[in-house]
Write a structure and sequence with these properties.
This protein is mainly α. 69% of the residues lie in helices and 0% in strands. The longest helix is centred in the middle third of the chain and has 22 residues. The C terminus is likely disordered.
Length: 167
């Protein structure tokens, strides 16, 4: 895959926010990480490999961002761009409280599966292992929890949360 598209990781690094000057380094680091962890790849089909390589590229971009913090000018620009609107912040806080209360009212098995997925970032397999169920049943619990939240009277009255498209 990498020999067929040698600039793939470089382009992906740039799309993840790595500076163009550092993109070649990020691509090389990601390729080395992929080579070292190739034994962990479960299937060799194109979709699985692309997703696996994308995870490695994202982690590499994050590691580089942590090592190379933005300059003071970039920090100042970010601060100016992120001006706070007090009314908007208060509205978001109220929505968050509503959603958290609604999550608390879910059935325990749905609530726990949802939190493990959304907050802890656990896979369906990890959730299934925790509850002693199949991965399909774990995905179903998460989907049922999300559906229950969307239908909850208090949550249905609030607008969509930031960073999430309206349903």
């Amino acid at each position: 895959m990498l020999t067929a598209e040698p600039h793939r990781l470089r382009r992906r690094s740039i799309s993840l926010g790595v500076r163009r000057d550092d993109a070649d380094d990020a691509a090389q680091i990601a390729a080395m990480r992929a080579w070292r962890s190739i034994d962990g790849l479960e299937r060799a089909d194109a979709g699985t490999m692309c997703a696996w390589l994308d995870v490695i590229a994202r982690r590499t971009a994050i590691d580089l961002a942590r090592r190379n913090p933005p300059t003071d000018g970039e920090v100042e620009c970010e601060r100016l761009r992120a001006r706070h609107d007090v009314e908007h912040e208060a509205e978001l806080q109220a929505q968050l409280v509503t959603v958290l209360r609604s999550i608390g009212e879910l059935q325990p098995e749905l609530r726990d599966a949802l939190l493990m997925s959304a907050v802890d970032g656990k896979s369906a397999g990890e959730i299934a292992e925790r509850f002693g169920i199949t991965p399909a049943a774990a995905r179903q619990r998460v989907a049922r929890a999300r559906r229950a939240l969307k239908q909850h009277p208090r949550v249905a009255d609030t607008s969509s949360l930031p960073g999430r498209p309206a349903a």
